[in-house]
Amino acid sequence: QVQVVESGGGLVQPGGSLRLACAASGRISVNNAMGWYRQAPEKERELVASITAGGIIHYTDSVKGRFTISRDNAKNTVYLQMNSLKPEDTAVYYCYADIVISYSTRNSRRDYWGQGTQVTVSS
């Protein structure tokens, strides 16, 4: 009932930039936090950045000053502008959306995930 679709990954040289986008659609009553995780080969998935509907932002330390997260609440879309990319940023990036669906007798709240988009930083 809710779909999350990412776009914008690719191959970039060190020092370059990429912009990821993620749109949530479907039966959305409330869209709470949205954000991005990443997972590199043989590493655990880590939270990169998140933003609440009210604009409260969190970044993991390794991307502070280089990545910027933003969102368009009207479009249920979140963006991740990635600058000064490093080889260690190479990973599959996953978008999530904390969504509430209201039914007649109850609400259902859970995280919905995108399929992932590959970001490769290499010369």
Write a brief structural summary.
This protein is mainly β and 123 residues long. Helix content is 0%, strand content 59%.
Q: Uncertain segments of ≥5 residues (pLDDT<50)?
A: none
Strand proportion, as a percent range, falls in over 45%
Q: Determine the mean pLDDT.
A: 95
Q: State the share of residues found in helices, binned by percent.
A: under 10%
Number of strands: 11
In DSSP terms (H or I, runs of 4 or more residues), the helix count works out at 0
Task: Characterize the biggest β-sheet.
Answer: 7 strands, mixed
Euclidean distance between termini CA atoms = 41 Å
Structural class: mainly beta
Nearest-angstrom radius of gyration? 15 Å
Sum up the overall morphology in one term.
elongated
- List the secondary-structure elements in sequence, H or E: EEEEEEEEEEE
Features:
0% helix; 11 strands; four-stranded antiparallel β-sheet; mainly beta; 123 residues
Describe the structure.
This protein is mainly beta and 123 residues long. The protein has no helices and 11 strands. It starts with a strand and ends with a strand. The relative contact order is 0.32.
